Amino acid sequence: MASPPKAPAADPIDARLVRRLADILTETGLSEIEVEHSGLKIRVAKTFAAAPQQFAYAPAPAPMAPAPVAAAAASASAEAAAPARASGDVVKSPMVGSVYLQPEPGSELFVKVGDTVVAGQTLMIIEAMKTMNPIPAPKAGKIVEILVEDGQPVEFGEPLAVIG
Predict the structure, then answer these.
(1) Predicted pLDDT of residue 80
(2) Which of 46, 53, 102, 145 is in the most buried spot, having the most CB atoms within 10 Å?
(3) Residue ranges of the alpha helices (H) in 42-144?
(4) 142 assigned to some structural domain
(5) Cα distance between residue 133 and residue 127, in whole Å
């Protein structure tokens, strides 16, 4: 009598266990996990492929020979191209922010060219970090020029107005 054919041996590795171990790696951020149970050892590891890195390098500027005559001519033409600033004391920005020439949209300007101001009078405000900072007149005088526009971003030390 012939014995019945044997069924193929069951796969000793449980695919669900391997998938679960891979999920644990993903959830925990681990790169490797190993378990052993009843003589069966399973190790699951992730390899991380390095992301391709792209670097952009600007070519180094070529060294230039000194040209004192050309430099003097360039600075003279730059001065000629710059708008002539009215004479008087320049009020500079004490901070970085956005300058506003009026207390709120649609209202009258703090000052206009030609207005006479007293020391300490608010000329404009600069918004920095959601705080409105009044910019006072450093001295009494007449507003000769306003060098910024309403809502314009300004840098520290940037000229704002001229008081004559």
Answers:
(1) 44
(2) 145
(3) 68-81
(4) yes
(5) 6
